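Quick check before the chapter quiz. The format below is the same one you will see on the exam, so make sure you can read both the input and the output lines.
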Amino acid sequence: MPKSGLKRLYHIPILSKALDILESLQAENEPLALEALYQKTKISKTSVYRILKTFVHRGYVAQTENGLYRLATRPRKIRFGFGGQSEDLPFSQAVTESLRAAAASSGVDLMILDNHYDAATAIRNAEQFVASRVDLVIEFQIEQQVAPIVADKIADAGIPLIAVEIPHPHAIFFGVNNYRAGFVAGEYLAAHAQQRWGGKALWVIGLDIEEAGPLVQSRITGAFEGVRSMLPDLPIEAFVRMDGRGLRERGYKLTADFLRRHPKDKGLLIAATTDTSALGALQAVREAKREKHVAIVGQDCIPEALEEMVKNNSPLIGSVSHEVNTYGARLIHLGLAMVKGDRIPPYNYVNHKLVTAKSLLTPA
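Here is the expected output.
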């Protein structure tokens, strides 16, 4: 291929225009108006405007009070640390991907470490964030008992902290309103019992996460209250909490053991703190051939749960979406505001909504 052909192949017109604008600003000893840059570069005024706004957003150009533009002293790129819950869990993977995309689009350098659903690892990762001198930490780890240790290390270094889902001392909280998300799940389980079993539910099982602490446990508290609001005659003994740890294997074992102890019981409602533990419970129900007598609602709307829900007569009848696709943009926005010193509310709740087979199959 001729040399001129190679040049055309690798030439990026919009990037070339952006560099022309930067070079024009660099050549001047004073700020320039948009009109002046348009006249100098002969680039369309709309393109000049959009390029300038992008440079301002990324910190390469500053805009004066009277609307002129000048080269900015390029600041060090802001760096956030993110301690992910576990890359083995689908919801944690989704949070990480949402955050990675938002950081890239906002020009934030993101240091990602995996907490591996393990307390000791979360502590070591916090120490690594401090040693790396990140500007802010976003912490997503499950163990409430080590939350004060993790938070103290970060606070002692003077680093702002956002805690995802699990409250940490010194931290801004970001996550779902656990009680309300649980209540929605409980209401739907009770409605299923009314419609399919004439309201004759015998057991309400909550697959909880004890180590996550009271705030996350309020998902099951809410689910139980949601059931009670529609099935008020159920005795207190019908409500059973079990520590599923949010894990598939644990949800499977606990549910299988319960079904073996109650081989003839019908009308079991299962509220799971996560879809992962809900899928474990589902496996146990199928193996016991008890599908007609069990209904399960999870939390998080992970892809495998959504695929399961649309199957005919699946016991997994619903899941509460925490709108994980919005996490990244909101977390980066919160983080940048905190670094700037803005006043931030102590609790920042995400939206949640019930997702069912009907809502999945109904065109929007």
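If your answer matched, good. The chain has three domains: 3-71, 79-175+325-350, 178-322+355-361.
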